[in-house]
Structures
1.
Amino acid sequence: VQLVESGGGLVQPGGSLRLSCAASGFTFSSYDMSWYRQAPGKERELVAAISSAGSSKSYADSVKGRFTISRDNGKNTVYLQMNSAKPEDTAVYYCSAQVNRRYWGQGTRVTVSS
């Protein structure tokens, strides 16, 4: 299993960013996917999750209405669209899949600052 995140960077408060996670090594369309984040000095937290077919999505209260998780099973990729970014969204964002165990990508850093 390999998960490779991309799309992180510096964004101004109120701005937008789209994170991508390219998956390989397993039958992507059969598994739920999720995004987590870890801010400096804090524990890793679940941000959003999506079912294998993309029909069911869930979000942390802190990002509900601002972030959107989606997936393209033809491209083996899951996305996290971040809108109305806030400084408290600053963190390393990780893509994750629960296959026979939980797998993680290497993370992509997002900094929200003016």
2.
Amino acid sequence: VQLQASGGGLVQAGGSLRLSCVASGIAVRVNAMGWYRQGAGKQRDLVAQISVSGSTNYPNSVKGRFTISRDNAKNMVYLQMNSLKTDDTAVYYCAAAYGRYWGQGTQVTVSS
């Protein structure tokens, strides 16, 4: 199983980014998929999750600003991040099956 995340970068506060995760060896349509983030000196936290049925879950810190989606045909998962804040700065990770599988992280830096 491989999860390849991309799309991170440097953005100003208030801006947007879209992260992408391409999966191989696992089908995103039959697995819960999630995005996590880990800021410097902080624990890794869930920021978005999509279940097999398509239901989504977000912590209050990103609710209304972040949207997780998936493309079953492309076997990809996305994280649309809008109205970014400096507190969103972190390494973002794609994960499958409730954290059983992890991709490498992609750095998101939000400047003030």
3.
Amino acid sequence: EVQLVESGGGSVQPGGSLRLTCAASGFTFSDYAMSWMRQAPGKAREWISSISKDGDATNYSAAVKGRFTIARDNANNTLYLQMNNLKPDDTAVYYCTHPTQGRGPGTQVTVSS
């Protein structure tokens, strides 16, 4: 059974940073590209970043490019999202996603002064 568990969310002021972590289990992590998505209150879920199986290729949405960095540790089945220069518009629940098996329960990120 695929399990994805996000952690690292919290409340920060604008300009602050957070590092999200996703612990993956139940599948061969290194066989799959992985992604982060987010959903703000009242808005549709939004893709924000993906990383290739080996971590050599990354992609970002325009909204986060230059501020967020996706990374992975295949030895420890872990996906990361480093978020810098956070803005109030980044407030959302952040989800780690598998390409075919869905997402974790999410972690809340709140950016507010």
